[in-house]
Amino acid sequence: MSSLFEVAGVEDSAPRPLADRLRPKTLAEVAGQEHLTGSTGLISRMIASGRITSMILWGPPGTGKTTIARLLAGEAGLHFEQISAIHSGVADLKKVFEAARVRRKDQGQGTLLFVDEIHRFNKAQQDSFLPWMEDGTITLVGATTENPSFELNAAVLSRAKVLTLNRLDPHAMAGLLERAEKLAGRPLPITGEAREQLFVMADGDGRYFLNLVEDLLAVVDVDATPLRPAELSETIQRRVPVYDKSADGHYNLISALHKSVRGSDPDAALYWLARMLVAGEDPLFITRRLVRMANEDIGLADPQAIVQAIAAKDTYDFLGSPEGELALAQACVYLATAPKSIGIYTAWKAAMRRAKETGSVMPPKIILNAPTKMMKEQEYGAGYKYDPDQPDSFSGQNYFPPDLGREHYYDPPDRGFEREIRKRLAWWSDLRAKRGEG
């Protein structure tokens, strides 16, 4: 009896990868996605209700997107059609849509159209799905590793549920390994520690994990001494972490780094910094964000924060990698352990908002220069007091437009260096009040 994934009438004699031989036959066998395919999962509930809606399966590579789509078609009695957005164009889509229309009319069978890498289609190509989805000719199941809210049209997203698939955790991979060992008829010859390391090497990708297992079963004799972690690393190459510097992984990791610094957690900040560098992130991009953190989250609570961030950039430019990476780590720890303040950030936003509201109001004449006789006659600069010559080097004059009066935007918190600034501002405010300038 042929399985769901075999072509009817063709003898299954060609070598097949372990990942293909272990491909689940039912949704319940899909590893690591119980929130979707378990007995109470959303996809299982769709099947039970008899109402299958279009969906976008969003998740890392090797998490079962294609398998789920195939099994879903089988469970729902739909014809399964698969295309890749990388290799297909408008002409291919028209053929698929027309075939689905004829199939529905002549055979009464709907079509589940699985589109791999659906985010690779442009807006016009994505829009072409809409009428066929709306009249029920196709049930669209798109697969993507990119954030759908950034990559897919709003019209498509409004007609499809976005379902998130998880990276496979060690428990899920342990289940895959058990099935692989059962199929091979022997255990994988590695120690417990090496087994844990193998899970890490797979980086949540079930297909890649099974490829590693298959390689090990092929090259390590059944009677060999179990491999330890160091020997495992020598036997197989470690996988480069999934990280697209122009897409989701890029933004997820820099967000994690920024939030860790803001949350004053130097250990987490160092971890995310290391993750980005290991994955090949541009150090200049990281240093730009460190400078931004120094301004946005620390400001004058520690004026040295910006100095450290700029110094890290200069040091890396001078030394390069790997020596210069230590400067990034130093700046990262300094920023994470610095007192935090959004005093400047908040004040600047308030000032910008007020500037847009008030338009072209003129400054007070006392702080305008009077280079011409006419301007002097109009009292430009009249009454201006030169602060360094005043008692306490402070005149207390109002520098806001007369129609606005004095306004306050900057309210430094009582911590870090801004505690000293707060004292200065309070002292100047008292002097201003005493001199009747407040």
Q: Could you walk me through the main structural features you see in this protein, from its secondary elements to its overall organization?
A:
This protein has 438 residues and is an alpha/beta fold. It folds into four domains: 147 residues, Rossmann fold, CATH 3.40.50; 66 residues; 90 residues, Zinc Finger, Delta Prime, domain 3; 72 residues, post-AAA+ oligomerization domain-like. The chain is 51% helix and 6% strand. The protein is built from 21 helices and five strands. It has a five-stranded parallel sheet, with helices on both faces. β2, α5 and β3 form a beta-alpha-beta unit. α10 packs parallel to α12, α11 packs across α12 and α17 packs antiparallel against α18.
**What's the level 1 CATH class of the largest domain?**
Alpha Beta
Helix content bin:
40-55%
The N- to C-terminal Cα distance equals: 92 Å
Strand order of the largest sheet: 2-3-4-1-5
3D shape: elongated
Structural class: alpha/beta
Assign the CATH architecture of the largest domain. 3-Layer(aba) Sandwich
The helix-strand sequence is: HHHEHEHEHHEHHEHHHHHHHHHHHH
Name its key features.
438 residues, alpha/beta, Rossmann fold, 21 helices, 51% helix, 6% strand
Topology at a glance:
Layout: H1 18-21, H2 34-37, H3 42-49, E1 55-58, H4 65-76, E2 79-84, H5 90-107, E3 111-116, H6 123-127, H7 130-134, E4 138-144, H8 148-151, H9 154-157, E5 161-164, H10 170-184, H11 192-202, H12 206-219, H13 229-235, H14 248-262, H15 266-278, H16 283-298, H17 304-319, H18 325-337, H19 343-358, H20 373-377, H21 418-434
Parallel strand pairs: 1-4, 1-5, 2-3, 3-4
Helix pairs in contact: 10-12, 11-12, 14-15, 14-16, 15-18, 16-17, 16-18, 17-18
